Amino acid sequence: MVNWFRKQRPAWPDARVLVLDLEMTGLNAQEDSIISAGWVVIEQGRIELSLAGHQYFQPTAMMASDVSASAHIHMITDHLLEQQGQPLGHWLQRLNGDLLADRWVFHHAPIDMAFLKMFSQRLDIVLPSVTIEDTVLLEQKRFSDLTLESQQQLSLTACRARHRLPAYRQHHALSDALATAELYLALMTDSQ
């Protein structure tokens, strides 16, 4: 039975896909902060680099007090956030505006989604209703004959290597979003 009131989502590759990567001060959405985001748009099955972007976020009272514990991983400093950061709320609102998409893709979606949900609730911003896809799960499904369970085997770099994709700088939100977009396209192409 067709639900005529539910928005019909376009099928791949007609869907507008927003590939997102967040850099955080840690992995606990209750205690840590989103400090940068990178995004890449896929339209008609192609990466549109002209629509890609990156944003640092200003520190606020609701965010972790500093990034010193994680700066060695992502190379983002408190000074950088103070100088180049924008309000996180403005960017979250863009997810309903110019960044609106049919699908969001992440590499290990539960972590990023926990942060997006937590901070959108704190800032009283409603996230759009979109299909969430996870390249980790797609990779596990694609290689179901292999036992891919460890963090190392499921890292973005390891997944890309299995598809003969080049290595990129890790822990920069934009380069990770691009790397995830390329992996997603490889996985979707393989599944057809």
UniProtKB/TrEMBL annotation:
CDD domains: DEDDh (cd06127). Keywords: Exonuclease, Hydrolase, Nuclease. The lineage of its organism: Bacteria, Pseudomonadati, Pseudomonadota, Gammaproteobacteria, Oceanospirillales. Residues 16-192 form the Exonuclease domain. Pfam families: RNase_T. GO terms for molecular function: 3'-5' exonuclease activity; nucleic acid binding. It comes from the Bacteria. The keyword Nuclease applies. InterPro entries: Ribonucl_H, RNaseH-like_sf, RNaseH_sf. It comes from Reinekea blandensis MED297. SUPFAM superfamilies: Ribonuclease H-like (SSF53098). This is Putative DNA polymerase, exonuclease activity.
